[in-house]
Fold this protein.
Amino acid sequence: MPIKYLGSKRRLVPEIVRLARELLPTGTVVDLFSGTARVGHALKAAGYRVLANDHLHYAETIARCYVQADREDHAEIAARLIRELNALPGAPGWFTETYCRRSRYLQPKNGARVDAIREAIAGMDLDPELEAILLVSLMEAADRVDSTTGVQMAYLKEWAPRSHNDLELRLPELLPRAAAGKGRAYRFEAREAARRLSGDLAYLDPPYNQHSYLGNYHLWESLVLWDKPETYGVAHKRVDCRERKSDFNRRSAFLAAWRETVAAVDARHLIVSFSDEGFLSREEMVEMLASRGEVRVLTHDSDRYVGARIGIHNPRGEKVGSVGRLRNREFLFVVRSRG
């Protein structure tokens, strides 16, 4: 998915696909923390059957578009519907009021388009895969004209230059069905997914610190659910961001949750993505994964996420802290079964 996303594996995707091919030339890959489905999409393009899972509604929708929906089934009708939606005039509503007037996510002209398009999609009674394609098209369109640093925790004090552009839907990059079989999108908690989904290879990219993806991308969750929730704070987060917490974002709970996931995952081989900013050290991760097989570690240097480079600010946008290190190390742990 071509969007700004914390923890995106855009630079590592070719390496992940190469490692998958080393472990097995074809088969089923289980992606337990699919996020924007960037990795799942690349694995589908390489011919693998992908079972993509994430506990957030917006991530399930993205995976349903990029992993489950096949181009030959939906591209023609989706393109026609996108042309019709692009022709709709703006109709300001809940989204415009919340995220364009009470906050500064989009320019009001584009917020009104989001309101009109999302209401139209809601009234179409579409097949889930086709609906997912249209919703992802809308999310990507909004991302191209937003006024953020890449997360939805707060918005820029002055409108970003791209925010003045007109919102335009485009057909997502749909893929034909993979040679190994049709992919699927699921929305389980990761430990349940590890118990319920089976594959030849599992790709695991868990949250590695306290930053919640729901909190950082709450607006997409609301766009997908279209439940027009009560909001709070400068960023107007969904109120359920306060309750919908993950053990993988809490240092005190991460180790037990991760150990249970690793033990339960039903796949012969594993590829695990992690960072030196995570709750476990490289050595601790190797020790835990060694119970599954022979572990090899590849290390990549990368820039830290944009918020870390900008620095720490209070709710009024005033800088209150200094920038720490600007780069981190991304690890890929490759676990080859001894069986």
